[in-house]
Write a structure and sequence with these properties.
Strand 1 and strand 2 form a beta hairpin. The longest helix is centred in the middle third of the chain and has 105 residues. The N terminus and C terminus are likely disordered. By secondary structure, the chain is of the alpha+beta class. It has four helices and ten strands; from the N terminus they run H-E-E-H-H-E-E-E-E-E-E-E-E-H. The radius of gyration is 48 Å and the shape is elongated.
Length: about 400
């Protein structure tokens, strides 16, 4: 009878499982017979009974009953990892669980590779640290060159500004010379027109008088032996030609002086405009955002390339990016803190938007175009290495190992 009661009690009140497999040491005190889900969705959940009681899957740490649960791999000798619980006992040795604990009940024996992986990651980390140190050293060189470049631009700007007042004065003085010369030249032309009109008028009068005289002679008794009118005409013509030659010489001289004054002014005005353009260009360059310590100042316009498949990808700092002859975008914005540059308004895609590209900057000892991808149609991503960001990188072993796994 006692045995029947015990059996009935077992069937009605089953013993609640309490396996600690897949539970992190940090969370272990939270797990008890009456388990309160970590998201508090169920205060009487049963642990690892192959049934999902909690909305967050926290009750099933060593089974795949909950798709959103996690199995804690201790990975002694390396870094622990929270593996998705649906991967537990699936017959596959997941590399994230290098200690093989995820296949504790599948019949598959997974070797413990944690120490080996830890050594490999340490070697990678050492290489990255070496790269970072070389990059940081070259970053200091970039800063030194940037300071020299900035100072050189400031000195040049000061010199140009000193020249600006002299150029403006010269241009103004040359401009003042043109007006009186133009007036004198125009007056000469007007005078010449008046003289020409006077000569024409006098010739017309003389011709009329000669016609009258000829008519009178025709009516006289005999021909006249003298021809004073003809002699006077020759004298008048000679005097007129001499006067015209004199005026022409004066006109040419004055015109040459006026042309020279205009040419000198145009030259001075061009020099002034060129000088103002140089000043504006230097002021714009000095106002550019080149990051802390102007570290990117000497990198502006520098380009790196990567040959991949049938394309040659090209990235130019603060300028543009290309896929062979296709523009993927012109420089738009950048964030030094985010270590990213954005390029927009590239060539349009067939039945799509204009191409664009986001460039992620990472620490490298040399400027390199490392990777190119197209996660969405006409939207590209690049990874570019440069020593300019190396001082911002600190290699954290925990983060590094987690990211790699």
């Amino acid at each position: 009878m006692r045995m029947l009661i015990s059996l009935w009690t077992f069937l009605v009140y089953p013993i609640q499982c309490h396996s600690t497999m897949g539970i992190s040491p940090h969370d272990l005190p939270l797990y008890s017979t009456n388990f309160d889900c970590l998201d508090h969705s169920n205060k009487n959940a049963v642990i690892n009974d192959q049934y999902c009681d909690c909305l967050d899957g926290s009750d099933e740490t060593d089974s795949n009953a909950c798709q959103n649960g996690h199995f804690y791999c201790q990975n002694k000798g390396h870094q622990p990892y929270n593996l998705k619980s649906y991967k537990v006992n699936d017959g596959y040795c997941d590399p994230e669980c290098c200690d093989g604990s995820d296949e504790f009940n599948s019949g598959v024996i997974c070797p413990n590779t944690c120490v080996e992986i830890a050594n490999q990651e340490r070697q990678k980390r050492d290489l990255l640290e070496s790269e970072r140190k070389m990059g940081a050293s070259k970053r200091l060189e970039l800063i030194t060159k940037a300071k020299e470049l900035i100072q050189e631009r400031k000195d040049s700007l000061n010199k140009l500004k000193q020249q600006l007042s002299d150029r403006k004065l010269k241009e103004s003085q040359l401009l003042k010379l043109i007006s009186p010369l133009e007036s004198a030249y125009n007056n000469l032309l007007d005078s010449k027109k008046d003289s020409a009109f006077k000569v024409i008028k006098e010739n017309f009068i003389n011709t009329t008088d000669e016609s009258k005289a000829d008519s009178a002679n025709d009516n006289s008794d005999g021909p006249s032996t003298d021809n004073p009118t003809e002699d006077n005409s020759d004298t008048s013509t000679s005097e007129t030609e001499t006067e015209e030659e004199k005026e022409t010489e004066e006109e040419l001289k004055l015109k040459a002086e006026l042309d020279e004054a205009k040419s000198n002014h145009e030259s001075a005005l061009k020099d002034l405009n060129d000088l103002e353009s140089q000043i504006t260009d230097l002021e714009n360059k000095l106002s550019e955002d080149n990051g802390p310590d102007d570290v990117f100042a000497t990198l502006r316009g520098q380009c790196v390339e990567l040959n991949e498949s049938e394309y040659t990808y090209k990235f130019c700092f603060f300028t543009g990016v290309h896929q062979s002859y296709t523009s993927l975008g012109e420089f738009s914005t950048w964030s030094f803190d985010a270590q990213a540059m954005h390029f927009d308004n590239g060539n349009s895609c067939w039945n799509g938007p204009n191409r664009s590209c986001r460039v992620k900057l990472v620490c490298k000892a040399e400027n390199e175009l490392l990777e190119v991808s197209e996660p969405n149609k006409c939207e590209y991503e690049m990874k570019v290495g440069t020593p300019a960001v190396c001082d911002l990188i600190s290699i954290n072993s925990d983060q590094f190992a987690h990211d790699e796994l």
